[in-house]
Amino acid sequence: MKKQLVFATNNAHKLEEIVAILGEEYQIISLKELGCTEDIPETADTLEGNALLKAQYVSEKYGVDCFADDTGLEVPALNNAPGVYSARYAGEAKNSQDNMLKVLRELEGKTDYSARFRTVITLLKDGQTHLFEGIVEGEIVKEKRGTSGFGYDPVFVPRGYTQTFAELGNDIKNTISHRAEAIKKLKHFLDNEK
Ligand code: IMP
User: Fold this and answer.
1) What are the backbone dihedrals phi and psi of residue 162, each rounded to the nearest 5 degrees, phi first?
2) How many whole angstroms from 71 Cα to the centroid of ligand 1?
C-alpha cells in the first residue's frame, strides 16, 4: 500500500515536482484534496518558521501527518535579502518582474553578486518535527535571460553553469535545484523509516 502524506500546498508545479521525486511508493495529498481552501498565514520571519507554521496549521486542523516548504533567494551583499520576503520583495502584488528589478537595483555598485536559493521543508510526523534543507549556490546576472521557470529564475545562474535557471529549463533545474535537494532529503528520511 502507498504511504500517504499531506503536502501543505496548492501549487501545482510543486506538487508535480514532489510526486516525480518521491515516486510511486507515496501518495501525496494536496490541500485542495484535503478540503483546505483557506489562506494559511505565513507570518514568520524565517523560512524555517513559515514552513513550520504551514505544517502545524494543517496538522492541527485536520489531524494528519503533513509537510510544508518555504523558499527564498538569499543575496549576501544584501544581508541575505530578499530571503523569507522573496515573493513580495517589491510589494504585495508579488510581481516577479518587479522583484527581480529591485534585486538588480539594490545590487548596483556592489561587487559581490553571489546568491543562493534555499528551501526548507518541515515534516510533522507521528508527533515529531523534522527539517530538511536544500541549497543551490550561484550568482545574480545583471540582465534577465531565458523564459522558463518562475520567480527569480531569469537572473540566477547556478554554480558550474553559464545559463540562468530560466535558460536551463525545468528538466535540468529540477535535478539540481534547492527544492529538489530538500525533497531528496525528505525522501531519504521517509524511505528509511521503520
Ligand atoms: P515559495 O516559498 O516556494 O512560494 O517561494 C517564495 C518565493 O521565492 C517565490 O514567490 C519566488 O519569488 C521565489 N522562488 C522560490 N523558488 C524559486 C525558484 O525555484 N526559482 C525562482 N524563484 C523562486
Assistant:
1) -110, -15
2) 6
Atom of ligand 1 nearest to the CA of 14: 3
78 has a pLDDT exceeding 90: yes
Residues 65, 69, 70, 153: which is the catalytic one?
70
What backbone phi and psi angles, to 5 degrees, belong to 107?
-85, -10
**Residue 123 phi, psi (nearest 5):** -110, 125
Q: pTM of this prediction? A: 0.95
Q: What pLDDT was estimated at residue 183?
A: 95
Give the pLDDT of residue 11: 86
Alpha helix (H) residue ranges in the chain = 12-22, 31-34, 47-62, 96-107, 165-168, 170-176, 178-191
